Amino acid sequence: MLCRLAWGSVARARRDYLIYLLTLTLGVTVFYAFNTISLQVDLANVNIEGLDEVLGELLGNLTVFLGAVMGFLMVYANNFIMKRRNKEFGLYQVLGMTRGQVARIMALETVIVSAAALVLGIILGVGLSQLMVFFTASLFKTQIANFRFIFSTSALALTVGCLATIFLVTLVFNLRVVRRSRLVDLMGSGRRNESIKTRNPLLAGLVCLLGAVLIGVAYSRLLHDGLPVTARSEELGAAMTQFEITTGMVTLGTVLFFFGLSGLLLKLLQAVRGIYWRGLNAFTLRQLSAKVNTVSFSMAMISMILFLAITSVTTGMSMVNAMTNSIERVNPVDFSQSFWYNYSLSEGTDEDLNPVRYVALDQPLDVASELEARGVDLGSVCDSTVQHDTYFPLGSEQVTRITSGEGTPDENPLTIGALAERTGAEVPGGMTNSDADLLGLDVMRESQYNQLLAYRGKPRVDLGENDYLITCDMGDTIAGFYDKVLASDPTIKLGDHELKPAAQKVDVDNSALTNSAMGSNSGTVIVPDAVVDDAHLQVKSSYLLVNYNKRGVSTEQGDEFMSQAALSHIEYSNIRSGSDVFGFFGPSVTRSEMLAQTNTTAGAVSYLAIYIGFVLVIACAAILAIQQLSGVSDASRSYRVLSELGCDKRQIAHSMLAQQTVFFMFPLAVGVAHSLVALRVVIDLVRLFGGLTISAMVGFTCVIFLAAYGGYFLVTYAMSRGILNDAVRIRYTA
C-alpha cells in the first residue's frame, strides 16, 4: 500500500519533482560521461603512457567532490518539495499513519525519482560518451581508426555510488524533518502569512553603493597589481597578501551590493511615480525587496560561483589555445640541449661536499663535444648540428656587480625598463620582474643566427656594421612591446658601438632558439660579431640544436636513440676541470616530447575546465530555480488575493516573470562583470606565452552556460505558472 501511495504521490507531484529530477539526471549524465575518459583515450588512439590512469583518477576524485556539491543541492531541492507538500503529509497523519510510515513513503518517493534519474542519466551519459570520443580525439590531435561502442562499468559504479550517497543524505534529511514536524504546523502551513520585512530604503541604498565602491576598488587593485604569480620570489609573500585583500574586498562588496540592492531599486523607482504605480509594479518591487532581504547572501555566493565557473572555463580553454597555437613555432628542431654558464666567480661545495670554484668563462664551450665525451654519439642520428651562444649585454665585471647587489640595472642599456623609458612603450605585465629587466636582453652573434636560420632552411639576414635585430618567440604581448620599441628607431650602445634597428618588427616565426613548451626567447638582440668581440660580453648560455637528418633515420628512431642515451643523467650535471665548475647542462628536449606534453596538458585542462564549469553552473541555476519555486509557493496566497481583487492572471504572471528575471540575471551580470575584469588580467598573462584568440573560447563558454542557465530559467518559469494557475483556481477563504 505504501508503495502505491508513493507512486501516486510522485505522479501527482511530478511538477514539483521536475527540478529535482532534471538536476539529478544532468548530474548522472555528466558524471558518467566524463568518467569514461580512460576508454575514450584508448579509442581515440592517444598513445601516452599512463594518461588514462592519471586522468581517470583525477576526474574520479573531482567527481566525488562535485557529488558532494550535488548532494547539498539535492537536499536544498528536497526542502522545496517538502514545503510544498506539508499539508499532504499532515493529512496522512490525521488519517492514522505514524510518522515512520510517512517517512517510508517519502523514502520510497525518493527511491522512485532517484531510480528514474539514474536510468535517464545513464542512457544520456552513454550516448554523450560516444560523442565525446570525437571531442577527445580533437583535443589530443589524434584520429579514430576503428570506432566502437564503449561502456564503462567503473564509471557506472562511481556514478551509482555518488547517487546512492546523495540518496542517503536526502533520506536522512527527510527523516529528520518528519521527526521534528508537528501536525499543527503541517496542517496550517498554507495559512501562515508570509513575513515581509523591508529595510530602510535610504540605508539599503547606501549599503549597496558601498558594495559597488568596494567592487570598483577591488577591480582597480587587480588591474594595477595583476596576479601574484608575476611577482619576484622575495616579493611573493607581500603580493599574495595584497591579492587576498583584493579577493576579500570583492567578496564583501558583492555581499553588500546584493544586501542593499532591493532598497536601492525600491527607492529609485518610488521616485519615478509613473512607473512605480503602473500595473503591479509596486507589488513586484515589494516582493523583490522582501525576497532579496532573505536571499542576498546566497545571490552573492551564486554570483561568485558563476564568476569562478566562467573564469575557470575561459582561462583553461585560453591556455589550451595559446599552447596549441605556438607549439610548432617554439620547437624548431627535433632535439635541443641547453647549457648555462656561471655568472661570476664564487666558491662553494659540490654534491659530495668537496670545495669547488664556480668560474665564469670568457668563451663558450663546444656542447656537442661535451656530449660526445659523455657517450652520446650524435652522428648516429644526424650529419650536422648547430650551436649558438647568447651573451649578457655587459662585461663580466658589470654582471658580477649587478648580481651581487653592488651595481644597479641602470648601468644596463638593454633592460626592458630602459627600453620602455626611452621609447614610451608600456612594459608587459609580468616582465618587470624578469631577468630581462635586471640583466638585460640576451645578445647573439649575427653569424650564429644565420647558421641557425640555414639549418632550419630559412633565409639569412644581413646586418650592416652598426645594425641590430630583436628576436622574441614569446606571445603577442612581449612581441608587440618590442615592435613598439623598434618603431621608435632607438639606438643602443654596446661597448664603443652605437647600433640602430635594421627592422621595425620582430620576426616571431624565426625567433625560436631552442625547443620549449611555450617559448623561451623573451628577447634576444642580434648584432654583428665584431660588437660581441669588441665589447667583451659575458657568455650566458649555449644551445645545441639537432635535426635527425641522417639518411634512413626516422623521427621515431631519433627520439628512441635520445631516450636511450641517458640524457636524464646529463641534465643539470655540471662541467668541471678539477675543482673549477664552468656551468651545468640544462634540459634536453625533443620536439615530439613537447608536442605530446602539450597535447596531454591541453586535453586535461580542457576536460577539467568544462567539467567543473558545467557542474557549477548547474548547481547555481538549480539553487536559483529552487529558491524561486519556493518563493512562488510561499506567495501563492498573495497571488490568489490579487486574482480575487480583479487582477488579470497575465499581469500576475508578468510580475512573477519580472521577479524571476531579476533573481536569475543579476547574479549572472555581477558574475560576468567579475569575470571580465579577472580575464583581462589572466589573458594579458597568457599572451606573454603565445598567440591567443579569446573570442572562440568565450563563444563556446557562453553557449554551454546559456543552454544550462537559460534552460533552468525557462523550466522555473513554466513550473511557476503551474503553481500560479493552481493558486488562482482555488477560491480564497479567510
Automatic annotation (TrEMBL):
It is a multi-pass membrane protein. It holds the Pfam family FtsX. InterPro entries: ABC-4_Integral_Memb_Prot (IPR052536), ABC3_permease_C (IPR003838). It is found in: Cell membrane. Keywords: Cell membrane, Membrane, Transmembrane, Transmembrane helix. Residues 64-180 form the ABC3 transporter permease C-terminal domain. The keyword Secreted does not apply. The chain crosses the membrane at residues 17-38, 58-81, 102-129, 149-173, 201-219, 249-269, 290-310, 604-626, 662-683, 689-715. One of its GO terms (cellular component) is plasma membrane. This is ABC transporter permease.
